[in-house]
Amino acid sequence: MSSSSLHALILAGGSGTRMWPWSRRARPKQLLPLVGDASMLAQTVARLEGLVPPERVWVLTNAEYVDAVRAQLPGVPPTQIVGEPEALGNAAAVGLGAALVRAADPSATMAVLTADHVIAPVAAFQAALARAAAAAASGHLVTFGIRPDHPATGFGYVEIGAPLDDEGPGVGDGAGTSAGAGIGVGVGSLDVDAACSVVRFVEKPDVATAQTYVDSGRFLWNSGMFVWTVESIWAAYGRHLPGTLAVMDELCALAGRGAEAFDAGLPAVWSRIPDRTTVDYGILEPSDNVACVPAAFNWDDIGSWAALAEARDGQANEQATVVVDAGEETAGGRFIGHDVEGCLVFPGGGRLVAGVGLRDLIVVDTGDVVLVMPKDRAQDVKHIVSALQDAGEAGRL
Fold this sequence. Notes:
- The structure is a single chain.
- By secondary structure, this protein is of the alpha/beta class.
- It has 2 domains: 3-301, Alpha-Beta Complex (Spore Coat Polysaccharide Biosynthesis Protein SpsA, Chain A), CATH 3.90.550.10; 305-396, no CATH class.
- The chain contains 12 helices and 17 strands.
- It has helices spanning 40-46, 66-72, 90-104, 122-137, 178-181, 207-216, 230-240, 242-255, 259-270, 279-284, 305-311, 381-390; strands spanning 6-12, 57-62, 81-84, 109-114, 117-120, 141-146, 157-163, 196-202, 219-229, 290-294, 298-301, 322-323, 332-338, 344-347, 349-356, 361-365, 370-374.
- Strand 2 (57-62), helix 2 and strand 3 form a beta-alpha-beta unit.
- Helix 7 (230-240) crosses helix 8 and helix 8 runs antiparallel to helix 9 (259-270).
């Protein structure tokens, strides 16, 4: 498909609590320079340059972040940066984006991207995006799969089948059964130019199961990035989430009346969305026309402090200690260590942080908060966030 009809929907909502205390409600992680000088969101938009022009970029975020997002993305038309009145789930957000794109261009192909991924090189990403758009043109709902290099338990997995030209198995009736589970091709032998059929999706397995997936060579991490035509995704919502589709029809009609009418009418229409689910559960898993493009680019999902450590300079050496330069976002600080291995240190509170004999820790100093935890417990920062909420300390969040 020609890139002239390719639109990009960037999901930039969420409060980034897993990166607390640097990420706060007032400045969530997607607006921070986690890796590089620009924010994750700004990097996501820049990655599209030359393939998707700013006038075909759409950004969905939380309503309270709209002004900050518009300030970071001056090239994107302000009316195409939209705030969800409340978080109703990933399927609702994608449905809203599809309605906006459909109102602007009913024949469009749309890529659904996330604002907290680190991807390189750009040329490989754009080439994969073009391959996915070609597969989408034949009616497939396309996801990108990432070759796993360890048994991660925080990611969903997708089992791949034969290349599309070989009419391999698809998700839907019979997917994931013993008849289909053995029909796969080794990830290492995949032609990166080939889109493959999908056998099944598996959500966040335990470490032993994840290891069997890695060893099998048939499983990829599900990146959470998708490509499809507006026509195909509209039909998929009609088959699997018809209640949400009815609201999407309203949203599309509302968008056709202009930005002012859309902003005024969005909250009331949005509140009628009945399905609180994700695109993976609600649309892709029950569909029989799902394809996967194996990614030939490097990819990191910055979903925790441990993930940030891997994405920084220490990813090639597990014993390396990574010191995060907070830049202009904080008062700065510095770190001095003796006999320190495998740690990530964020000295952003304007103070000297010192450590002796530390192993595999994350130390975060933001001035008003000091967080210390083992690297392998990084996902558990959510419990601190919940405890602060329960204690009525919303000012720390």
